[in-house]
Amino acid sequence: MKKFLLLMLAVCMTFASFAQFHSKRMIKAEKCLPRTTTGIDLPVTGVQNQNPLVSNKSVMDDPVTCITKYDLQSNYTSQKRVYLHPDGTIGGVATWSQQETSWTDRGSGYNYYDGTSWGSLPTARVETSRVGWGEYMPFDVDGEMIISHQATGPLVINKRTPKGSGPWTQSLMPALPSNITGMFWPRSIVSGANHTFIHIIALTLPTGNGGQTYNGMNGALLYCHSLDGGSTWTDWTQLAGTNGSFYTDYTADTYAWGAPHGDTLVFTVGDTDKDQFIMKSTDNGTTWTKTILWHSLYNLGGTSPGWYNCPDGTMSVALDKQGFAHVAFGLLQDSLAAAGGYWNVYAEGIVYWNEHQPILRQDLNYDSLLATGHLIGWVKDTLLFDQTIIPTANTTTWYVSQTSNPELVIDNDNKVFLTFAAGNSLVDANGYNLRHIYGRDGVITGSGDAILWHNDSLVDLTGDWIQYGFADCMFPSASITSDANIYILFQKDDYAGSYVKSIGNSGMRGQTSASDNSITLLKWTKPIWTGVNEKKAKPTFSVGQNIPNPVSGLTKVNVYLQHAGDLSLKVTSLTGQTLMNMEKPNVQPGVSEFVIDGSQLASGVYFYSVMQGDQKITKKMIVQ
User: Fold this and answer.
1) What is the pLDDT of residue 457?
2) Which CATH code of 2.130.10, 2.40.50, 2.40.128, 3.90.550 fits the domain covering 7-47+63-535?
């Protein structure tokens, strides 16, 4: 009954929430524990009181590949956990455990799609000992490989050929760095025609997890590779520009590889108090070049005088057909106060940058990012910010932006597919707000310096009410390969937040007992672009959501112009009747403003359209 009432409330919210794009909403601060280099990995304990309201659905349109009680697939950025092979088969992993206390059975829960059906749900880990953070990738001509970390010691590698059947061969990666007891939270990629060039970045175990400092850093990011399928390896290397002269430490899981392009490799790194940068190699990992795309003022410590916008530690990077890097990361608002870390639970936004562009503005101003095309994702459900619907105390804390874990996939046609997890005003049985997986698609322009988006709205890829009406959807991981579909593996939970991350952490809000989590494969069919859409000119203006919304009196609409021209705004009813018409001749580039008098309209839903030349952008607003 409770779920039925919540469903009806959520349906009502859906009809009330039409906002597609809105202005800056980083308005409410929340004191939380500071984020450190210490990541979740070592055994954790706590109480597990099963909630009787949990129900597992028996009919699933999207296949469940794994069931796990361990609900923290990453501290921040998602691993590469799913891969579409050229023959149409798919392999995927998740950090799996059914043990619930110290997670002694934890390891990689693996499943395989043979082109017809998925295998049985895993009942044991792949590895022979307790590990975590497994990543899945192709290996050799027709094989597969999983790389994970153990409590101490080298990384764990499991390989087998052919993929999908037979025993796994396990090995430990040799030669830990001197005086280091373990390498943790790896990120891996393979390159070469037969997938035998293996590249890994990983973090030296921080002191907070029982590790040691390395060259003065409490958590150093190191790189190594093998060019013979893992038979031999280079030593772990601290790449130029990443050592203690530039940064004091790195945080677990705040880095990500992009798919290789021939001998060109790229990974990105960033966090709230560190530069967001890329490391790029054009010679298969022999030499590397660092490019900073956002500069932090606190790379070597210090406290901030107030709030500042910054990356949230979740990110993605992809190479286009020409080998240029494209980066997306979550936008957070932080304050490095002397007494501890503070961050804004309502911060949002997915920021975009590519190699053709200069460094991003240091202040990461929301409206400026929107006006220049650097803001490509946002919270679609603006009712999340209505305190009468989701009180601050019921806002789930993941220690990331309300828009997090972006995944960029660029296919062979230079089409771009963005997915990310974002908060909404739906709530779980305990009243905490949930997250869904959203998508947006576009194409890289001929000059390669921007993305022409298919449309200016977002698609809730988990919008099916039966499956996802009360699901917390997090940690999307997209296959770097695609066919007519984009394949996204994510964690679906009946409760908001992470139980694993909440243990012993008074700053967390959300799930406080263990439950089953479904590792689900989402198939996003690529939208079809018509020739007209593909050839249309790049939009020369953008339109913000009216503020406030809902409205009872005056409401403001900001328009961001790239070129001078005549502007007009028209308000229409749901039936298409024009109710208001405003014109602004010869408007200069920059921000222009329309004011709508909502008191002249009856309560209900309306559209407003802004036009410049033959271009039109339409938004919805609610009048109370």
Assistant:
1) 77
2) 2.130.10
